[in-house]
Amino acid sequence: MLNSISPSLQRPRLRCCDASSCRSAGSGALLKALETARSNAGEAAEPLDIEPVGCLRLCSQGPLVALDRPEGSSLFGGLSAPLAGALVDAGSGTDNNSSLNDHAIDLEQPFFALQHSVVLEGCGQVNPESIDSAIAHGSYEQLRHCLQELSAADVREQIRRSGLRGRGGAGYPTGLKWDTVALQPPGPRFVVCNADEGDPGAFMDRSVMEGDPHRLLEGLAIAAYAVGADRGFIYVRAEYPLAIERLRLALRQARQRNILGNNIFGSQFDLRIDIRVGAGAYVCGEETALMQSIQGRRGSPRPRPPFPAQKGLWGAPTLINNVETLAAVPAILREGGDWYGAIGTDSSRGTKVFALSGAVVNTGLVEVPMGTSLRTVVETMGGGVPNGAGVKAVQTGGPSGGCIPAALLDTPVDYESLRALGSMMGSGGMIVIAESMAMPELARHFMRFNVNESCGKCLPCRAGTVQLEQLLTKFVAGNAQASDLEQLEQLCQMVQTTSLCGLGQAAPNPVLSTLKYFRQEYKTGCEPATAGPQPWA
Amino acid sequence: MKAAAAAPIASEATAEQKRINRLVAQNGSSPDALIEVLHQVQEIYGYLPEAALSQVAQQLRMPLSRVYGVASFYNLFHLEAPAAHSCELCMGTTCFVKGASELVPLLEQRLQQQLDGPSAADGWVLRQVSCQGACGQGPVLVVDGQLISQATGQGPGLLQGQLDAAGLPNRAPKPSLGAP
Questions:
Q1: B75, B97, B135 member nearest A280 (Cβ)
Q2: Which of A104, A386, A504, A513 is the most buried (most CB within 10 A)?
Q3: Are A66 and A15 a contacting pair, CB within 8 Å?
Q4: Same structural domain for residues A372 and A509?
Q5: Model-level pTM greater than 0.90?
Q6: Angstrom distance (rounded) from CA A317 to CA A82
């Protein structure tokens, strides 16, 4: 998808990545310089379009600019403002690209060639600040189709057939969730988009919101129609200012065009969507805590059932889906549920977006069919650890997930396989760990995160994570006793089984998975101090 | 709103109170809007002064304890005036596995203060923060809003130069200057 040009494109076009990661590498100045260079170039550059776009995937080479010409697309990275003139010349066909040769990125390399863009099909193509650009790429066409030609039950049928499962991590079947909400007794309903992407190392949802916000709004609107809701919320974490800004702009634009509001597309369907901004609490990614926060309260989770689908916001049935789940909806309706269901594996259908980072050559965003092996993602696409060092493990699922050792890299990425290994799909952060990382230290890193983010409501999580961190510190320092290992395991079991919500229940996972695959490192941490310095000390 | 001084609000209580009243009204005077209102109050003062919390509670017709409970629950709400200058070290997992913790001694040495410790007399604070979203450039530092990327990959000499340029004071004792 990255090297495809929309068929209507006649004019050459420069697409400058204007998402968070490239911005932090200086794409803002580059974009301005490109516009200046185009005015300076005069007539020759007149037919050249310059557009800010969302993530172009290979974040480690940012800032990135893609060039579309009738003969094909090319991508350049590691750019800076002084190269703007050369880029404009290349775009207007008056330069042989000589000064850009060092910056050219091969679009045929596996990192791009093995991507299968569904959720991200518009990300990097559309101008995220222009509703016209989004509509030209097909946005809101499926909403119109649903409202004018399909019943709510027809829409749910397509989602059921697609086999789509929740992309926030737990993998609950989306069609089933939609049915549950739709089939509650008559009365008001709400839809909520969970955009509180809090796992460290996860930036998939941010990229969708920053790069293609209208796709998310369309997915949420279709969901609202399918379950009979007329009110929706997008709960975004405050740490994503650019995503919030673009969502707000997209909402204003959609309201102005009457794509949101009353009698949408001439139908009886009304929908009001509001943005709610979090305030820095990881636990608010948990759905019952999130609902509390939307209602202006502390983000304290509550036991389920009742599930939000039965009793959610203000006691009404509430559908809560993650950004990536909702962003897959327009493509599913366009191509049909069966089309989507044919991608991936039997139990995990469709594609999944991963944020690949850590000790890996190619850091960035990848979307691949479910069932692709970890090795393909990390080594073939990611290029492995820099300087040819070995992969020690791959961490998925953030502070709730686990570490998968290098020996198991051929595992296909799907919900069940990852869970069987003691990790989880999670929202899609995939962090590559190099040989040099000591696993007890990594486990402590995640435990500290959980200590800081525990909401404090239930004891096992509030106090258990603190105890776990203290125990782990002994292993890191190399002064643990053999009995500490036993206690560590017991405490993990206790926190896992007795915590109130997902945060606490999953908090021991990084410890348990590293204990399972790297037990020797914990044993080394047990030896008496006389054994000399530890490898990681 | 951003231009307002972070001065104590007692002296001009009525004007400040009116401002908060307007802000609450703009948000529909609904208890659901509490978090949004607190964000906007914090934008004015840089933190959430006690008097402002009382005013919000009164306007939203809820007990101060509930307002305080929310304000103290969320990490991004500050109940005290923020430090004048900050050096923030990203400890997101990507930055962590790329060696962010190796930068701690270097920064502590340079600033002569402890990570997450109290701020120095000249207002500088050194703290660790969660993911800054620049995972492609990790490990990263943010010095008074200015991002310094790939902080371990470039050698300590170059990094010190960048920190100088970003205005981070160098209080390290002379003999160890430039030493890793």
A1: B75
A2: A504
A3: yes
A4: no
A5: yes
A6: 55
